[in-house]
Design brief:
By secondary structure, the protein is of the alpha+beta class. 42% of the residues lie in helices and 15% in strands. The protein contains 3 helices and 2 strands, in the order H-E-E-H-H. It has a two-stranded antiparallel ribbon. The longest helix has 16 residues. It is elongated and about 55 Å long.
Length: 80
């Protein structure tokens, strides 16, 4: 656990060892998620991987859960 100070203008600095492990040693973006128990920081790639894992839980084994099937369904519903 590491304490990070936040300046009055909202800036904070992550220690270099954490930035290196996350691939952010030259800067980058993180996603900030406020939860009931606190704040979670994720790299963009971590957030994408998490979203993909959640989506996979709901779509795995469902042949109608593809982008192509979704678009075909929307096209049929629109009557175009």
């Amino acid at each position: 656990m590491v304490q990070v100070n936040i300046t009055p203008n909202g800036r904070m600095s992550l220690p270099i060892d954490i930035r290196k492990r996350l691939g952010l040693e030259n800067g980058g973006s993180v996603i900030v998620e406020e939860t009931e128990t606190g704040v979670v920081l994720r790299t963009v790639s971590q957030a994408v991987a998490r979203a993909q894992a959640i989506a996979k839980r709901y779509t795995e084994g469902n042949p109608d859960a593809t982008v192509t099937a979704f678009l075909a369904d929307r096209h049929a519903e629109s009557g175009e």
